[in-house]
Amino acid sequence: MFDLFKKQFIEVIEWTEPADGILAYRFPTLDREIQSSAQLTVRDSQMALFVNEGNVADCFSPGRHVLNTQNMPIMTTLMNWDKAFKSPFKSEVYFFSTREQIDQRWGTQTPISIRDKEFGVIRLRAFGSFSYQIDEPTTFYQKLSGTRQTYTTSELDGQLRAMIITTIATKLGQGETAFLDMAANQQKFSDELKKELDLPFMQYGLKLNTFLVQSVTLPEELQEYLDKQSKVNLVGDLAKYANFQAADSISAAASNPGGLAGAGVGLGAGAVIGQAFANAMPGHLTPSGSQEDVYAKLEKLHALVEKGVLTQDEFNTKKAELLKSIS
């Protein structure tokens, strides 16, 4: 009996958000009766809908409002009520949090296959964050929250992430930016994706405030291949590297009193190493026996240095000429 009387005296309608994550909240009223001239308080981070028998009658922005037919023209039109009507409304009030929902995470659960300009068909993973807020409570109520007591961000996460992944897969699939250039264009990539996602979010009454792509990565096996290729690029031309090593050994041997073999790496070993590296490179054009002839000449020249026929400077000059002929 007490509840029967109490329901006729609902004069203050307000909502204080108890915790993060609640997007919509239905104000509890017994038998959906709200007293005429009740006070509705909507805070700065909220908006409210007055729903009568399933129809959205009015939307209230932040402020203090009196619920009667004089300040609810839409309600008056729907019900054709006289402005002097004083009976309780058989209606409901829904509050909506318009705070920005920050640090929402998104990521590709499975790699996205794209056709890259440099690597061909590759698979990419992408991760990032975004933030949004309710911008059109009426649309949000009609398409998502409905008549539930509460509606939370966790209930919406799956739908939003699905829209994001679909948009990203479409954007990456166009292959406009090579994978190696994505890091340098990450901000531009984020801005372009936000523009693509603005409309899908808007269709649910949401405003997408920020959208960030924090990383785009290859699957582990492809990343290992890319690392190996980078190492090869750092080494450069292996044939030239091998010739340099062999020449360095000869130079050390020429200045060593023990002769060419005294440097720790004999002339023959240097020739073998140089030839092995050169042969390992595809398309090498060194004529057969040319390197061996050069090394033989260097041995003869070094013998002349030991006999005093040639000076060390003359040997070094001739050595440079011979090595240049096989570089």
Shape: rod-shaped
Helix and strand composition category: alpha+beta
If helices are DSSP runs of H or I spanning 4 or more residues, what is the number of helices? 11
Uncertain ranges: 4-8, 80-85, 260-270, 280-289
Based on CA atoms alone, the radius of gyration comes out at 40 Å
What does the main sheet amount to?
6 strands, antiparallel
What's the helix-strand series? Answer: HEEEEEEEHEEEEHEHHHEHHHHH
Quick synopsis:
Helix content is 44%, strand content 25%. The protein is built from 11 helices and 13 strands.
Write the layout of secondary structure elements.
Layout: H1 2-6, E1 12-13, E2 22-26, E3 33-34, E4 38-42, E5 46-52, E6 55-60, E7 63-67, H2 73-79, E8 89-97, E9 101-107, E10 112-116, E11 120-134, H3 137-145, E12 150-152, H4 153-173, H5 179-182, H6 186-202, E13 206-217, H7 220-235, H8 238-254, H9 267-280, H10 290-307, H11 312-326
Parallel strand pairs: 1-4
Antiparallel strand pairs: 2-8, 2-12, 3-8, 4-7, 5-6, 5-8, 9-11, 10-11, 11-13
Helix pairs in contact: 4-6, 8-9, 8-11, 9-10, 10-11
